[in-house]
Amino acid sequence: MTAAAIDLEDRPRDFGDRLLEERKRLGLQVHELAHLAGMTDYMQKRFENGTSIIPIDYLQALAARSDADVLYIITGARSR
């Protein structure tokens, strides 16, 4: 396995923790990142809390509209 391999044991909470960490690294509030990804504040909070699975279209929007390290959110390995 490579360093960027996805840990299949990751739970939604693990992804949410990394998403929250990325949002804070970018200096964005919940509503700001939600807006960039076309989501509501409520759903953004659910993603960060690990109570909702993060959909691929959300990650695609983050990749296209922000400097979020989407690879890190998915795998836990920094791309930069």
List the helices and strands and how they pair.
Blueprint (H helix, E strand, L loop, with lengths): L11 H15 L3 H8 L3 H9 L6 H10 L4 H6 L5
Helix pairs in contact: 1-3, 2-3
Strand tally, please? Answer: 0
Counting helices, strands and paired strands, the structural category is: mainly alpha
Largest sheet descriptor = none
Give start-end ranges of low-pLDDT stretches.
Answer: 1-5
Portion of residues in beta strands equals: under 5%
Question: How far apart, in Å, are the first and last alpha carbons?
Answer: 19 Å
Shape: globular
User: Treating each run of at least 4 consecutive H or I residues as one helix, how many helices?
Assistant: 5
Radius of gyration using CA atoms only: 12 Å
Helix content: 55-70%
Taking all residues together, what is the mean pLDDT?
A: 88
The helix/strand series, from N terminus to C terminus, equals HHHHH
Short description:
The protein is mainly α and 80 residues long. It contains five helices and no strands.
Structure description:
By secondary structure, the protein is an all-alpha fold. Helix content is 60%, strand content 0%. It is built from five helices and no strands.
